[in-house]
Design a protein that fits this description.
This protein has 139 residues and is of the alpha/beta class. The chain has one domain (2-136): Rossmann fold, CATH 3.40.50. It is 47% helix and 27% strand. It has six helices and five strands; from the N terminus they run E-H-E-H-H-E-H-E-H-H-E. The chain has a five-stranded parallel sheet, sandwiched between helices. Helix 1 crosses helix 3 and helix 4 (87-97) runs parallel beside helix 6 (120-127). The two termini are 28 Å apart.
């Protein structure tokens, strides 16, 4: 059983997020805590000229709303946290900031692009200072 579990959720993959959240609930100590994390990746400055300001400004609010809805819909008590930046970096920083003892991260079956640039889950597994459970989607 774990005292502090980080569950990063991609707002575009809520099915995977729900599966990870349910896994966290089953692995959490009775007095433990789940941090439901979503990361909004910053748009590179050279692209922001083509993105409407409203879209960029409201991305964080929308992400928080979606993830909060996931927690309330499942009835699983979790603290919702929003961060901005590169996903792997922010997941690792969140785990450090909260002294987490487990990260549950969803992953997909790797394809060729993962061998060239790597996936967020790969980076988290390589650099995490705590245990990482990779929740793989069914093929």
């Amino acid at each position: 059983m774990f005292k502090k579990i980080i569950v990063p959720v991609d707002c575009g993959q809520m099915g995977k997020g729900e599966k990870s959240l349910r896994q966290a609930a089953s692995l959490k100590n009775p007095d433990g805590e789940i941090i439901l994390l979503t990361v909004v990746e910053k748009i590179p400055a050279y692209l922001t000229i083509d993105v409407p300001y409203e879209l960029n400004a409201t991305a964080g609010d929308e992400a928080r709303r979606i993830v909060s809805h996931l927690a309330s819909r499942t009835g699983i008590e979790a603290k919702v946290e929003l961060r901005f930046g590169a996903a792997a970096h922010e997941i690792l920083e969140c785990a450090r900031d909260h002294a987490a003892d487990l990260i549950i991260i969803a992953s997909h079956v790797p394809d060729f692009s993962n061998y060239l640039i790597g996936a967020t889950a790969d980076r988290v597994v390589r650099h995490a200072r705590c245990s990482v459970l990779v929740s793989r989607e069914e093929a």
